[in-house]
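Give me structure tokens for this 177-residue protein.
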Amino acid sequence: MSILRLLGLEPAEGSRDAGAEETETVRRITRALEALDPARARYVASFAFILSRVANADLEISEPETREMERIVREWGRLPEPQAILVVQIAKSQNQLFGGTENFLVTRQFHATAGPDQKEDLLRCLFAVSAADDSISVVEENEIWKIASELGINHTDYVSIRADFRDKRRVLKDLPA
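Here you go.
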């Protein structure tokens, strides 16, 4: 089963477009999650991919960011550690290779299937990944806001969640004392 099918991104029967073909991202994450219920696999795959989207926003995924993604995927996905590590590694490499073309598609599908609480949980996790190296860069913060907007999270809720990470925000660390 393709991740496009899991994520609901396959076109309607008979239609075909350039984005309809299964990508390597789809094949790799699907193989890693084959044993899971399809709905759960879809959730974990998109969740991990979106986490890697923020970690890679500054074009560098640090070791602390990777460890935080692994911890989050293990806990939120209820996966054993080896499987969580594999899912994160696949999500990272696929995001680095294909993120520009798949970022919006995966986030849009997460938006379509996740409830408001799940979206806010993801937003908190995005900030946690970004803050894992003790600094949320402006580029990472902008990417998180972009994702929040794609998820339909309003600005007030975004600011409320972001406030929990104010001591890690680079933009505030750079202010004169």
